[in-house]
Amino acid sequence: MLSSLRTQRAVPQEAAQRSTRQAFFIAGLCTASWAPLVPLVKARADIDEGVLGLLLLCLGLGSISAMPITGFLVGRSGCRRVIVAAALIMCLALPLLASLSSLPALVAAVVLFGAGLGMFDCAMNIQAVIVNDSSRQPIMSSFHGLYSLGGILGAIGMTAMLAVGFSPLIAVLCIVGLTLFTIIKATRHLLPTGGEGGAPMFVIPRGKVLFLGALCFIVFITEGAMLDWSGVFLISLRGMDPAYGGLGYAAFACAMTASRLVGDRMVSRFKSTRVMVFGSLCASLGIVFSLLNSHWSLALVGYALVGAGCANIVPILFTAVARQTDMPQGSAVPAMTTLGYAGVLMGPALIGFVAHASSLQIALGLVAIALLVVAATAKSIRT
Questions:
Q1: Residue 330 pLDDT level (bands cut at 50, 70, 90)
Q2: What SS3 class is residue 293?
Q3: What is the C-alpha to C-alpha distance for residues 119 and 86, in angstroms, rounded to an integer?
Q4: How do residues 216-258 score in pLDDT, each as one tens digit?
Q5: Average pLDDT for residues 353-359, to the nearest whole number?
Q6: How far apart are CA 218 and CA 276, in angstroms?
Q7: Residues 38 and 53 sit within 8 Å (Cβ to Cβ)
Q8: Nearest to residue 96, comparing CAs of 1, 12, 184, 168?
Q9: Among 140, 171, 142, 209, which residue's Cα sits nearest to residue 34?
Q10: Cα–Cα distance between 18 and 21 in angstroms, integer?
Q11: pLDDT tens-digit series, residues 117-163
């Protein structure tokens, strides 16, 4: 912990916060840019929902393979180098995802994108925990708010470019250009080191970290469902034009951003337990609402409720893991990040398998039920 604080003092506090927000913006931008591509990849490769689920599983496998060693790499090389390297990997993979039609080549590109995304997410969260601990007031929700803002721009930007006739490749290259511009601006004030240099390469979560990671897993399954399956649901089951499939994730991301921008004040006023209970119930209700209505416009309202509900749960959990005592901070953050992000990366694949065996409505309904577990266990969270 002391080494983390010394690292933070080497970078001005305001500059460190700004670079952290820029990193979260990049993560949201690149992740959301993938959402409008999912239905297009499905059509271009001519695959069914079951094969699409396997393809999405490759995204999770790439990320889960990279995340466990990210804490070790950050301890050895620092947040700055790992974040920049991961951003370059994502910029290389996105154009491949927008142009390839061969299933084996798509598998390789998805694994590469997943690895870059996993490294980036883990490294930026290590930086966020260090910067948040050095602040005199809660700022974790504001970091995640920039992730959501990037998600809005990625989803709406990609959808708009596709709607006016841009090819998927040209649209993605625009996203890559913005990503490179932002990472160049952020690089100077990213932390040159991070965590404990002696952190092990592979860490198994235990105690409180395991519990918090399990809750993250549920919430991130929900986010993954909105990212990868909202467009498929709207196009396949609600008759939406494929060019506008990204609006589902855009509605989710807009509501999440608005809620996160006031999230730190909400937690200070109502306490984390109440925010978690209300948020998980709101998200569960939003999924049910989208499933029970037949028009795509009403489904968008449901997705907005999901975004508003999920918005501040994950920032609360990351604040809690930084202050638990079962594991050192430098090991706890990567361990919980790995377990939690498995939900957003592998959860959509599980949804695809359930949808193939039954229906997409049943698969999404199970996600709504899982959110009730978060509400039931929220009282045990203390930040």
A1: low
A2: coil
A3: 6
A4: 999 989 988 887 888 888 888 887 887 777 788 888 888 988 9
A5: 88
A6: 13
A7: no
A8: 168
A9: 171
A10: 5
A11: 989 988 998 888 888 877 777 788 889 889 888 888 888 899 899 88
**Where residue 203 sits, what CATH number does that domain have?**
1.20.1250.20
Tokens for 213, please give them. 């990671």
Q: Which range marks the domain in which residue 69 is found?
A: 2-380
Q: Which residues of 136-156 are buried (b: 16+ CB within 10 A; e: fewer)?
A: eebbbbbbbbbbbbbbbbbbb
What's the CA gap between 174 and 223, in Å, rounded? 24
Instruction: Say which amino acid occupies 95.
Output: P
So what's the pLDDT on residue 195?
59
CA–CA separation, 228 vs 235, rounded Å?
12
Tokens of 328: 């050192």
Of 130, 135, 139, the residue nearest 265 (C-alpha): 139
Query: Letter for the amino acid at 48?
Result: D
pTM of the predicted structure, to 2 decimals:
0.78
What pLDDT score does 367 carry?
A: 93
Count of domains forming the chain = 1
| Rounded Cα gap, residues 38 and 46, in angstroms | 12
Contact 259, 273 (CB under 8 A): no
Q: Distance between CA atoms of 257 and 26, rounded to whole angstroms?
A: 14
* Helical pair 140-163 and 168-187, crossing angle rounded to 10 deg: 150
What does the alpha-carbon distance between residue 359 and residue 363 come to, in Å, rounded to a whole number? 6
Arithmetic mean of pLDDT, 85-95? 95
d(CA 366, CA 36): 24
Q: Which two tokens stand for residue 313?
A: 């749960």
In one-letter notation, the amino acid at residue 158 is M
**Is 329 in contact with 75 (CB distance < 8 Å)?**
no
Which SS3 state, helix, strand or coil, does residue 75 take? Answer: helix
Q: Are 50 and 353 in contact (CB under 8 A)?
A: yes
Residues with Cβ within 8 Å of 311's Cβ and at least 6 positions away in sequence, in order, are: 141, 144, 148, 255, 256, 257, 259, 260, 263, 279
E strand or H helix at 138:
none
